Amino acid sequence: MSTPAPAPDRPADQDAQQRRGTLRGAIDGVRTMELTTSQKLMVFVLSMSLFGLSNILLEIIPEPSIGPVEFSISNMIFIPLAVAALFSPLWAALGAPLGEIVFTDLLMGDFSGLAEVEGYLQMFLAIYIGGSMVRNPSNKVQIAIGAISIILIDKVLSAIVDLSKVWIGVEEAEYVEGLPQSILAVEAVGLGMDVLISGILFGAIPAIWLIPRLYGRIEPLMGMRPRVPGEPIPGDAPKGPLFVGFALFLSAASFGFAFLEAFDLSAGAWEPDFLGRFGDSFLWLSVAAILLVLGVTVLLFKLAQKRSSHDDAR
């Protein structure tokens, strides 16, 4: 069985590093790459740390508005998309929303307890599915579709939750002055702005520029070879009715956790609001925590690599 050809646009000196990734098994006659435990952990922490850092930056970016329309960035979604497209959709999706919860909600003193699970499940599904759509990291069309899909999945699920709360009667509709007095109109305008700003301007456009430039260059730093277009993706979303059922189950579970907050049952809530009390300078605590977690993980990853190399040499 032949080893897949090197990825395009990859520096020649990386050919010698092609086998640094662990190659195991085959699917439909195509050789697949499986990540080691240390690589999975590194992808998870990298996604968690970078997405958490991006959310810290969003805390200090002003949110201008024109009339009833507010221009806000919900997420810099190109960051977890890049990790998912280059390494593993599953482990990137597991890490990114946790980074937002730990480094911006929990450390900043704005933690809603079990209600936070709603956002985690929705963002996990969005990144998992959107990241799996990028079969070729150099294909700009796939990258753009993946970025927009992440925002659409996350925001549509959130909109369904908001509409359900109003229709059931556990919350009152929050209308915007200057817009039609319709919850559907408010949600539609919000979804459109999120797709435009977070999905395109801070999603598809930077991802189209970033991912092809990192492709083939960053993977060897993780002890991996670059993905070959057409081969099975490690940790991608499976196709078929079973995964559809799994996605529907997670969506329904996220709705359940959302209603906990509506009924004031958000156990574990912790809201001392450190950012409001100490100002933006308190954000440096989160930055320090991110650097500490990332540094420890890199150190453990390097030790695992050395141990693996020593075992192989024996």
List the helices and strands and how they pair.
Layout: E1 23-27, E2 30-33, H1 37-60, E3 65-66, E4 69-70, H2 78-86, H3 89-106, E5 111-112, H4 116-132, H5 140-168, H6 183-214, H7 241-262, E6 269-270, H8 274-278, H9 283-313
Antiparallel strand pairs: 1-2, 3-4, 5-6
Helix pairs in contact: 1-2, 1-3, 1-9, 2-3, 2-4, 2-6, 3-4, 4-5, 4-7, 5-6
- Domain count: 1
- Please report the distance between the alpha carbons of the first and last residues: 26 Å
Content-based structural category:
mainly alpha
Major beta sheet, strand line-up: 1-2
Q: Describe the sheet with the most strands.
A: 2 strands, antiparallel
Mean pLDDT: 81
Number of strands: 6
**Roughly how much helix do the residues carry, as a percent range?**
55-70%
Poorly predicted ranges (pLDDT <50, ≥5 residues)? Answer: 1-8, 10-32
Strand content: 5-15%
Gyration radius, rounded? 21 Å
The rough form would be described as globular
Total helix count?
A: 9
The run of helices and strands is EEHEEHHEHHHHEHH
